[in-house]
Amino acid sequence: MTQENDLILINVEGKPLVFARIEEIIADTKPDWYHVKLLMLQVPLKTVTWILKDVYIDGQEFPMNGKKIKFEKIHGPQEIRHLDSSDYSKGAEVISLADHRK
User: Which of 30, 56, 79, 88 has the fewest beta carbons closer than 10 A?
Assistant: First the structure.
């Protein structure tokens, strides 16, 4: 289920167009419809609000201005494992980024 703060790829006519972050989802007066505020990750940044059915938010294709639009939820890369104290004894070195800024 796609929700606030998720990253999506907006596809138009089956081709990727732009990445966006879902900023807010507010229920509309009509059942199963929502006001979806999107932060378009482009230059310059832009916010838009689209009124969409819940199934459209979750990836079902929908028409807009005669074009087929589809949201694709983006899953980022897995988090990099953080070093723990046992790693330091194996020769791992901690590098201070603050020292590099001087």
Answer: 79
Q: Is residue 86 part of a domain?
A: no
Taking the C-alpha atoms of residue 5 and residue 42, their distance in angstroms, rounded to an integer, is: 16
Say which residues have a Cβ less than 8 Å from residue 32's Cβ, sequence separation at least 6: 53, 54, 55
Asked if residue 15 is part of any domain, the answer here is yes
DSSP structure string for 59-89: T--EEETTEEEEEEEE-PPPPPPPP-HHHHT
| Overall domain count for the chain | 1
Half-sphere exposure in the Cβ direction for 8 (13 Å, CA): 27
| Amino acid code (one letter) for 101 | R
Whether residue 48 lies inside any domain: the answer is yes
Q: Compare 92 and 41 and report the one with higher pLDDT.
A: 41
Q: Which residue has 């990253």 as its token pair? A: 7
What would the pLDDT profile of 15-63 be if each residue is shown by its tens digit? Answer: 999 999 999 999 999 999 999 999 999 999 999 999 999 999 999 999 9
